[in-house]
Amino acid sequence: MKVALQNLTKVFPNRNKKIKKDVVAVNDFNFEIPDGKLIGLLGPSGCGKSTTLYMISGLEKPTRGKIFFGDDDVTELSPENRGVGMVFQNYALYPHLTVKQNILFPLQNLKGKDRLTKDEMLRRTVEAAKLVQLDELLDRKPSELSGGQQQRVAIARALVKMPRVLLLDEPLSNLDARLRLQTREEIRRIQRETGITTIFVTHDQEEAMSISDEIVVMKDGTVQQTGAPQAVYDSPVNLFVAKFLGTPPINVFDGKIEKGVLYIGTDAVFSIAHEDCEVTVGVRPEGFIPDGGSLSCLIESIEVMGRDISVVTKNPASHNPFVRSIIASDTSVPSSGHVGFSLKPYKVFVFRKDTEERIFAELMPLGK
Ligand code: ATP
Question: Which of 80, 112, 135, 297 has the most crowded Cβ, counting Cβ within 10 A?
Answer without folding.
Answer: 297
